[in-house]
Each structure stands twice: as structure tokens, then as C-alpha cells.
Amino acid sequence: MKTNLTEGLYPFHLTPEQEDRASRLHENSILIDLLFQGPLSPQAIPAQISENIREACEPYRDEPMVYSGMPSKIIHDMAARGELPAFKEEWYRSGITAGNRQLNISDIEGLVTSMGEIQRQFDANDWLVKVLKAEDIRAAKSSNKKAGIVTAQETDGLGKNLALLDALYHFGLRVLQLTYNNQNYIASGCAEQANGGVSNFGARFIRRMNELGIIVDTSHCGKQTTMDACRLSTAPVIASHTGVEALFGHMRCKSDEELQAIAGTGGVIGVFAMPWFVYQDPNETTIEHVLDHIDYVVRLVGVDHVGIGTDWPMSDVEWSLVYFKEHIAPRIGFAKGDGPSTETVKGLEKYSYFINFTRGLVARGYSDEVVQKIMGGNWLRVFEQVWG
Predict the structure, then answer these.
(1) Pairing relation of β-strands 237-244 and 98-103?
(2) If you write DSSP's letter for every residue of 334-356 in order, what string do you get?
(3) Within 13 Å, how many C-alpha atoms sit on residue 300's CB side?
(4) What confidence tens digit (pLDDT) does each residue in 17-60 have?
(5) End-to-end CA distance of the chain
(6) Secondary structure class of 101 (helix, strand, coil)
(7) What is the pTM of this model?
(8) I need a labelling partner for 275 at 20 to 30 A (CA). Which of 143, 170, 288, 373 fits?
């Protein structure tokens, strides 16, 4: 199945020669989205299925956390049973070679459940392979398969048990964020008033991540935590999904000092496509605004330290996203009304529109070599260094 090169094209006003070049680059390059909530999105899920999911979830409405999380679980369960062909179709149309499959480590119950859900994706789809080494991504590209990278955005469920970190590595965990917005045993998140940095236990935790070969992710970390992680880690540090504070002063964006520190470790900054975090009006955020953040990072730290980690849209249904914004987001560190919700970046309403990144980079004058680095090559370099 080839990438769909006609639907959803953003009006970059490329010449026919530029369109051909972008198409060739997109088809032939290794493309990596390191915060890949797809391959589905509300626009890719049929309305009747969305309504059926609502009916199935309704008995749990008095349990907000359960109710909010159920639609995504049902969607992935349907995909594993082969009842949502769009799961494969959208991934292949996107052209994305490798994207993360995300563990929930908020607590032990969530960890065990999400391990089963992720493993089921690999077991149910012979076209989807679990990534343990960087070569697995190259092999997936050469055999027209897709690669799933096991990652997690929080560590709370591990407590202070480093043996669990070892166990997760053996399951396949390869990228781990130190903290999600708030304070934990390891460090301070970006929503904490106290800019506390990495704790003594956190330093041991990072050292064990380095020993195992798990990449240190600082996306939702506070500034001092990011700076400490870059100082403490002996391997490249990343921000899998973030933006530029100088362009939009949101807590989820990184300062120039943080971006330079990450690059100084040999790491990569993944720019996200979150409408609320890259531009002042989420209803008018376009892929051009996302590309502005990419341009800024390129100018600040160079072309070898920029990647993509979209983080949006979700594999969810619209009514569930509205509920999440109203009832769940404030519980996990976001200010009331401060995303995420149903808005999408114009030009990335569906993952099958991912070619707009390649087209946009071509439109902005980047060479083939640099486009390939930003679209996946830089991530692959870090993977090869940390995982072998």
C-alpha cells in the first residue's frame, strides 16, 4: 500500500518538480514520529463506530478516569480483532516507518494492562514489529513493514523499584520520560511551581537507564530537570515532543538553554503538532506554525538535532476528547481550558497527511539530506548510539 499523495495536501504552492521531489523523499526515506498517538484519529474513525463506543462507555460515566480511557482501549481492541481496517490503512498512507507504542506507567495496574495491549498489537498484526535495536527499523523499511517503539511518558508506577525498570527493558521499553508535568520520586515536571530538578534517586535512575540502553526523555520535565538530565546522562538525552518557548511561551515548550543542552548531549528535539502549544490560536494553528518551531531549532542548534514527535491527533473519538479536556486534563497538571481537546493542526488532521511535513520542509528550501535527517534520520542516529 503506497502513501496517499493527493488527499489532505496543505497548500504550500509547490512547483510540480518540488511535489515530485517531496513524494520521492517521503516514499524512500525512513520516517519516524516519536510521539505517535496514531495511526487513527477522530476523522479516520467512522461516525457509527464512535456512537457505538459511546454507548459501550456510558455505564462508566460516574468513573471519570475509566470513562475517559475506555474509548481508546476499545479502538485498539477492535483494531487487534481486525474490525478497524483503517488502523493499517492510515499507518501505511502516512508513510511513517516507525512510531512509538506507549506504555502507561502511572500505576501498576495501568502498567500491566498497557503491556498486554501493546503486545497484542504486535501479535495481531504481522506487518507491525517491535523495535529492540535500531536495525529493526531499517529492516521494517526494507520489508514494507511498520515498526513500533515501546515508550512511556511517566514513571510513577515504578516507585523506587529499579528492578521493574529492568523488567520493562526486557519487555521492550526503549524510551522513558522522567516525569509527566508534576513532581515524582525522580524529578520535577514542567507544571511544578518549584523548579526542583533531579533528585538523588533520579540520578541513580538515569544511571540505570544509561546502563540498560533506555533513552532519557525530558519532554514534560521542568527546566532544571532537563538541565540536570543532560548533565547526568552519559548517553544522548531527547525531548520526544516539545516546542520552542521563544516562539510560544507555554510550559510545554523548551527554553533556548534547554534546547542547547539537549543538543549538547548529541540528542534530538522532537517538535510536536499540538495546536494549543505552538501558536496562540488553536483554531487557526497550521502546519506552517509547526514548521516555524522546526526552523527555530535548526537555526539554534543545527540540523542534526531536530526531529518530529507529533503527539496529535489521538486515536480517540471526538466526544471523548471533549470530556478529557473538561474533566481529566486539570487532574494531570494542565490549567483549565489549556488543551488537549478536539482542535487539530491544519495540515495534520489525519496521520495519512504526514507527507505535509516533507512537503513543508521542501517548500522551506531544505536539502534532501536535511529533510531525511529531520523526518527520521536524526532519531535513527540516536537509536543506533544508545541501542546498538
Answers:
(1) unpaired
(2) PPTT-S-SS---BT-SSGGGTHH
(3) 26
(4) 999 999 999 999 999 999 999 999 999 999 999 999 999 999 99
(5) 30
(6) strand
(7) 0.96
(8) 373
